[in-house]
Amino acid sequence: MLKIDQRMYSPAVIEKIVFAAGTACSAAKASKALQKLAGLKVCPVQALRITHQIGDELRQQRESDAQAHKRRELKSNNKQPVDIACVEVDGGRTRTRAHEQGRGVHAPGWKESKVAAVWRMSGPTFEADPHPEPYPCLLDRDQVPKLATEMKRQRKAHRVEEGDPQGAGNTEKNSVKRDDDLDFEQASQALEGLATDVLAGQSAERLWPPKRIFRTCVATMKNVHEFGPLVAAEAQKRGFFGAARQVFLGDGDHNNWRVHKIHFPHFTAITDFIHVMSYLYETAGAVTDSEAAQWEQYEQWVRQAWQGEVALVIAELSVWQARFGLPDKATDESDPKRIVSKTVTYLTNNAARMNYQKYRQAGLPITSSLVESLIKEINHRLKGTDKYWNRLPSKEGAESMLQVTATLLSDRDELNDFVQSRPGSMFYRRTPPTPK
Predict the structure, then answer these.
(1) 225 has which bridge partners?
(2) Category of 148 on φ-ψ map: left (φ > 0), alpha (ψ -120 to 50) or beta
(3) How many whole angstroms separate alpha carbon 238 and alpha carbon 240?
(4) Distance between CA 30 and CA 24 in Å, rounded?
(5) Could you tell me if 3 and 68 lie in one domain?
(6) Which of 19, 42, 179, 436 has the smallest number of Cβ neighbours within 10 A?
(7) CA-to-CA distance for 209 and 151, rounded, in angstroms?
(8) Does residue 66 lie in a domain region?
(9) CA dihedral 192, 195, 201, 203 (to 10 degrees)
């Protein structure tokens, strides 16, 4: 059987169409690429419809896997032992519109996506801290302000109004700059250990952070309660629950730790160090009166945090908090008492997940920069000033495209496996249009 469906395309052609529409920044460019590179004449509307169809089927498969995992019936397809099982989670943002409202953009708003980077890693453990000093980029007087500003902007961008599940309350006036406005990528690469470390003034082969081996991606526009089972199912398929070392990374968002508590309770929980750094730099500016004093205070705090002595930082900040007093509802976001109080709360809530010296000795990563980079890759397809995706429950919306994009960004050729194995029928009829 050729598995040709109602549109008379073979699985090989369907895969090419979905690959083009899922990687190009628009359906129109995907159509041109198909014509130029594969000699396939597929109009943009048709390419988008097929891509959404495959995306919706991928969603159904992931949800089926999640249900099987809940029933403890999902089997691992991993044939190699896992040294380090790393799960990193974070949230992105996508412009959406009301579905089934005709042409144009109706009730525009932001909606948060949930993303997980599921990494298999490998690396040694150490008797002593393999990197006792912070990375050079964290002590760079030119780079740190840019990175701290970028992280602060991202935190503001991710504030979705409570009680607004569709995100309609986040209108265009809350639009933010593109993710690549600042040099966040350069700092992330340094923290991922892509360059050779220089320790004690001598060049040495990098042993930490651990080596990245294989990645799969999980993403959804649904809420955190539905996101967690999807990630757990992917981890089960990858054999992560039997790994020698298990780590779960996220920022300070309580939803991330809800996923950890319910689905990954035995994984070592680590708060992303970059977010900690950004809080410390902003707070150092709030308690000092000059750039030189700010930098001196920041260096002290970031070293203490890097070496796992966050309790010392909290104790010193508590003194400043007592001096400034607690903020009230009318206190401005830029007021020192608001900044100090916010940082004390953040560090206190995450202190149990900030023993970075211990994590490095165990050979574990301490930043969630890998999932941050993944979100940036996803945004290439889903995010843009002119892109508005239908909200759930529409099949031809953000959810189906997100499933396709996450599948294409996984190291395994999941799209080929799925398209080749999905059933097709020449007798399947297209749903007739609704009479006007």
Answers:
(1) none
(2) alpha
(3) 6
(4) 5
(5) yes
(6) 436
(7) 22
(8) yes
(9) 130
Contact 382, 404 (CB under 8 A): no
The residue from 331, 356, 381 where one domain ends is 356
pLDDT at 426 over 70: no
Distance in angstroms (rounded) separating the CA atoms of residues 243 and 196:
27
Rounded CA-CA distance 216/116 in Å is 9
Q: What is the mean pLDDT of the chain?
A: 84
Contact present, 116 and 371 (Cβ < 8 Å): yes
Domain-embedded: residue 373:
no
* Assigned domain for 88 exists: no
Q: How far apart are CA 245 and CA 84, in angstroms?
A: 5
- Whether residue 405 contacts residue 374, with contact meaning beta carbons closer than 8 Å, is answered with no
* DSSP structure string for 189-242: HHHTT-SPPEETTEE----SSPEEEEEEEEEESS-HHHHHHHHHHHHHHTTGGG
For residues 400 and 347, membership in a common domain is answered with: no
Query: Quick one: 283 and 329 in the same domain?
Result: yes
pLDDT(413) > 70: yes
Residue 320 lies in domain: 274-356
Task: Report if residue 435 sits inside a domain.
Answer: no
DSSP secondary structure string, 23-44? Answer: HSSSHHHHHHHIIIII-----H
| Confidence at residue 384, expressed as pLDDT on a 0 to 100 scale | 81
Give 333's contacts (C-beta < 8 A, 6+ positions apart): 339
**For residue 435, pLDDT beyond 80:** no
- Whole-angstrom distance, CA of residue 398 vs CA of residue 92: 12
At residue 205, the pLDDT reads: 58
Pairing of strands 109-122, 245-250: unpaired
**What CA–CA distance (Å, rounded) separates 403 from 154?**
23
Assign 396 a pLDDT band (cuts: 50, 70, 90). Answer: confident
Domain count, the chain: 2
Nearest by Cα to 147 from 338, 369, 342, 420: 369
Q: What is d(CA 258, CA 254) in angstroms, rounded to the nearest whole number?
A: 6
413 by DSSP, 3-state: which? coil
Q: CA–CA separation, 264 vs 353, rounded Å? A: 14
**DSSP class per residue in 310-347:** HHHHHHHHHHHHHHH----TT--TTSHHHHHHHHHHHH
**Which of 339, 356, 373 represents a domain boundary (last residue)?**
356
Q: What are phi and psi of 152, to 5 degrees?
A: -65, -40
The verdict on whether omega for the bond into residue 130 sits within 30 degrees of 0, i.e. cis, is: no
The mean pLDDT value for 230-240 works out to 96
Q: Which residue from 282, 264, 313 is spatially nearest to 116, judged by alpha carbons?
A: 264
| CA–CA dist 225, 142 (Å, integer) | 40
The pair of structure tokens assigned to 233 is 């199912």
Asked whether the beta carbons of 252 and 90 are under 8 A apart, the reply is: no
